Amino acid sequence: MRIGIISPYSLTPPGGVQVQVLGLARALAGKGHEARVLAPCDGAPPQTGVTPLGASIPTFTNGSIAPIAPDFACTLRTVRALRDEEFDVLHLHEPLCPGPTQTALFLRSAPIVGTWHAAGGSRAYLVPGTRWLASRIDVRAAVSADAAEMARNGVGGDYELVFNGVELDLFDSVEPKRNPAPTIAYIGRHEPRKGLTVLLDAMARLPEGIRLWVMSRGPQTEELQRRYQRDTRIEWLGRVSETEKLARLKGADAVCVPSLRGESFGVVLLEAMAARTPVVASDLPGYRNVARIGDEADLVPPGDAEALAAALLRVLQRPDHAADLVAAGRQRAEQFSMARLAEVYIDMYERAIARDRAR
Question: Which residue from 143, 86, 126 is spatially nearest to 109, judged by alpha carbons?
Fold first, then answer.
């Protein structure tokens, strides 16, 4: 099949949906399908097989800042790409997000599969016409029960539960970047709902010899760097390449995911598990889709710096506990392989095409 995968988010900044889009395209190509990604890009495309649709406009949504492109120039590029490519099926991620996914729904140049990722509510559903747009999708999927509930409450319909995938072979091929001292890794936007402040407060409760790698950036970066500038144990790495991210996740002694809310699925947890690194994370419904308490990860109450510090210290000081988490986590990650996810979506693509032909 010729598959057009459309992301409303720019592929330049790191993000969970972007990782899924690019990884799925690679997995589909590995199975003999011709998959092309259409998305905004704020620079050179991150891999081959990407059609850039222009620069993004940072937009506040769901407690975060999304790099979307709802402008007229992106619309024209999307129309041109859909006209030229002649896809057999389109796969829209966050299909009702303003930008190229909505444009694809208006045109409906091919059968459509839509995947909902977000949870926690969205103002996009208040816009008139969203139910009509959603009705143009042949097969609807959601990455979690929370994401399905949000979509169902917003536009109705039935949703098949899928999962977010992880490319296990990428982690196996990367050399770990290690630190002589016990080190915690954090990857995520520096914004309130991601809970980085809670992790930094937890660091004040940990022994002097423990280090912290803080990757990525966000609206809180400068403020947090000023507030914690005296703590020399914290290394602010900024945005890192995908290869460096994998190497540091693999080389850390623990990965911390301290989000407070608004998470439908724990992609970072899966990545850490694939890297064979123990995970300490907030006890959120979206993260329970991946980890279970005391099994694949240590989960603590969101926003509780003291509990977070205690869990991190337990992982760092008890090698037997860390090893149990690593073994269970890697086994869990294998259940979420991107190759397996590609097979799930191939079935959906075929059903979408069949339903379109039946009409």
Answer: 86
Render the burial of 80-111: b for 16+ CB within 10 Å, e for the rest.
ebbeebebbbbbbbbbbbbbbbbbbbeeebbb
Task: Look up residue 137 and give its two tokens.
Answer: 């999708």
pLDDT digits (tens, 9 = 90+) for 202-258: 999 999 999 999 999 999 999 999 999 999 999 999 999 889 999 999 999 999 999
Cα of first residue to Cα of last residue in the chain, in angstroms, is: 20
Which single residue is written with the structure tokens 């003999």?
32
The predicted model scores a pTM of 0.83
CB atoms within 10 A of CB 251: 18
- Reference 255, options 233, 288, 278, 287; nearest CA is 278
**Rounded distance, CA 252 to CA 177, Å?**
8
Give per-residue pLDDT as tens, 133-186.
Answer: 999 999 999 998 989 999 999 999 999 999 999 999 989 999 999 999 999 999
Q: Where are the beta strands (DSSP E) in the chain?
A: 2-6, 34-39, 50-52, 57-61, 64-68, 89-93, 112-116, 139-142, 160-161, 183-187, 211-215, 234-238, 254-257, 279-282, 298-300
- Close Cβ partners of 324 (under 8 Å, ≥ 6 residues apart): none
Q: Give the span between the Cα atoms of 81 and 87, in whole angstroms.
A: 10
Q: 233, exposed or middle or buried, with CB in 10 Å at 0-12, 13-18, 19+?
A: middle
